[in-house]
Amino acid sequence: MAATDLLVDLQDDLVSDDTSNALGQLKLSPLDEKTWPADSDGDLTKSDKECSPEIVDPPSDLKWDDPYYDIARCQIVEVAGDDNFGRKVIVFNACRMPPSHQLDHTKLLQYLKHTLDKYVESDYSVVYFHYGLTSQNKPSFAWLRLAYREFDRKYKKNIKALYIVHPTRFIKTLLVVFKPIISMKFGRKILYVNHLGELEQYLKCERMVIPLCVKRFDDSIQAAQKSMPAPVHLKPMPHQQFGISLLMLQEKDPDRTIPLVMEQSVTYLKKHGLNKEGIFRRSANMYLVKEVLDKYNNGVAVDFGIYNDVHLAAVMLKTFLRELPTPLLTYNLYNQVVSFGKVAEHKQIDTIVEMIQSLPKNNYTVLNYLVEFLGMREPFHILESITSSWELA
User: Fold this and answer.
1) 1, 54, 202, 339: least surrounded by Cβ within 10 Å?
2) According to the model, what pLDDT value does residue 226 have?
């Protein structure tokens, strides 16, 4: 979402609510007929610049007569699972944009909105791979201005992070140009990521199909950093709670049957989150998430009451479970869980019992604790649905 998504999403939280006035302040009109300035970082080699866009297979769930088939088959925009905070990830690959004369940019904008419409009601993140944007496939400033106007608050209110991977001086300069009309709130959502290793802090790269040329470029960056020391595999910290096994946690504290993070987050959610709808669909401030995570891993006491945010407690619970080295249902049960839908209905209960009984003791205890908590939330959701129906009647 290069400058495309970048500029449209930067409209979020503008200091001025009048988009036309804001655009007038930028004085983009005289630039409509001009070409983009070239990236001056020298990041692209001659062979890279001349290479054609990567050929990819069209999405299997897209019919040839779909109105967006020509756009979707380029796989410029993709959905790539969730990030480490449980937010849906939308990826924009600049390197897969065909030359401008071969791409219908109006339809690209429509397809981008069509894709985001499925996720904008919940929190989501955007990853923009800048590598591969050249003078041949850069959209015009006129199109950028149109896109800037098209994306209203609906698309920006729940975007929690915009990761710009392999940024150049050009993209940073572009942000400086728009800085006067961008609020500090949205500015904190933009994160520059210099290489894929840094991106791993926020999401699992293996969940994304990263274009081959982007990987090669990232490899060249890593190779150029000759002074970079070899990775050191550190032992778990004495008080570490995240990223280690349930067995190791119990060995640290034999008297505790439920991990500390789970117990404290669930206890807070029982008091303050049972009647809150969608607590597991929303994310929390990433800086607070990191702060609380660091506190747990360093043995510092955590009081969720200080933060007064049920979403923070819910995210910590999800993060703890997601960071377990072995899934709660274990890898051994993976095939059974995936194929459960094929089990005959009259055998499903017995199958579930059999799977649960095969779990290690620690996994069974934690799963039982989790299911009991989730069961407590169900009556409130039923009540909420009934209440909503009465109000609409």
Assistant:
1) 339
2) 57
